[in-house]
């Protein structure tokens, strides 16, 4: 995930350094490889990171 954040910040010309911390909490919770993926009954769509990366924040669809 840190690489995605680096790429997004670079696209925004944001020069902050990203430091990966495998023990960091995500919104106060410990995560693993399956925490941030959809469950069995998820409705899936298709969004490519490269497409999302080029969109201004106002154009990124909000979740229903």
Can you describe this structure in just a few lines?
The protein has 64 residues and is mainly alpha-helical.
Number of strands: 0
Mean pLDDT value? 83
Strand content: under 5%
Largest sheet: none
Topology as a string of helices (H) and strands (E): HH
Evaluate the radius of gyration. Answer: 14 Å
Low-confidence stretches: none
Helix content: 25-40%
Secondary structural class: mainly alpha
* Measured distance between first and last alpha carbons: 24 Å
Shape: flat
How many H/I helices? 2
Oligomer: single chain
What are the main properties of this structure?
64 residues; mainly alpha; 2 helices
Topology of this protein?
Blueprint: H1 2-11, H2 49-54
How would you describe this structure to a colleague?
With 64 residues, the chain is mainly α. 25% of the residues lie in helices and 0% in strands. It is built from 2 helices and no strands. It has helices at residues 2-11, 49-54. The longest helix is centred in the first third of the chain and has 10 residues, at 2-11. The model has no long low-confidence stretch (mean pLDDT 83).
